[in-house]
Amino acid sequence: MSVSLGPFAMGMLQFIFILAVIITMVTAWLVGKRYKIAIGDSVFHVLAVGIIVARISFIVRYFELYTEAPWQIINIRDGGFDLWAGVVGGLLMAVWEVSRNRQIWQPLAITCLSGAIAYAAMSGYHEYRYGGELFVPNVQLETLDNRTVYLNREYLGKPMVVNLWATWCPPCVREMPLLEDAQAKWPDVAIVTVSQGDSKQQVLDFVAEQGLNLNDMLLDHNNRLSNEIGSFALPTTLFFNADGMLIDTHVGEFSPARLQQAIEQIRAE
């Protein structure tokens, strides 16, 4: 579910996208040599415009949330992109590049198609290997009042956000007020935080220090949930619909807009 590169972590699909971009640029160089025409700049323009349009489309949809923290607009690690808006933007840029130099249409088409196939193949394999219908894991956890609960039974029939965090993780700490706001804004959604490896006293001290009022804070002393889902990067957030099916995931710190987008998805399912 996640990939760690030294101190940096990202979701597997983000990693696949970056790898597909690299493959596309290498293909542009190889195809350019074959056709004896430079297309690297044109391919870069298509990719850049596609990414920018995808980001702008997302920001426009959730603009009111970015007014409270405008710096989040440039925080592309939050994963806020509209795929199909980006595809349309990239195609329009490709048409513009070809209109300026008709000789590049064939190598540009081959390169862009190769990149799309690479992304589809890698993401398809990932879905086949790790995807399918994933449901709430059957993991035994502990509440702050010493009850034992099973994650897949405790919140049956409700959409659920499960946030894996730890008291020593700064991005996790920054997310807590957003989760508290989400709990008040969407009372029909279970907002569940699962501490990874912290002791009960550490979590209680943290809650008191931060003045938090989260209803469903669970303890996972042995990191069972991280092991079950295959993500050891913190924070990691899972979004399940009312049937318990995994609809979306987010690795790393989320923005208010990204959190709202994912919650809207699980409430609509």
Automatic annotation (TrEMBL):
Keywords of the record, alphabetical order, are: Cytochrome c-type biogenesis, Disulfide bond, Membrane, Redox-active center, Transmembrane, Transmembrane helix
Q: Which GO terms describe its biological process?
A: cytochrome complex assembly; lipoprotein biosynthetic process
Q: Which domain of life is it from?
A: Bacteria
Q: Where are the transmembrane segments?
A: 12-31, 43-63, 83-99
Name the GO cellular-component terms. Answer: cell envelope; plasma membrane
Write the signal peptide boundaries.
none
Which InterPro entries does the protein's record reference? Lgt (IPR001640), Redoxin (IPR013740), Thioredoxin-like_sf (IPR036249), Thioredoxin_CS (IPR017937), Thioredoxin_domain (IPR013766), Thioredoxin_ResA/DsbE_sf (IPR050553)
Q: Does the keyword Nucleus apply?
A: no
Xref: PANTHER family: THIOL:DISULFIDE INTERCHANGE PROTEIN DSBE
What name does UniProt use for this protein? Redoxin
Q: Which organism is it from?
A: Aliidiomarina shirensis
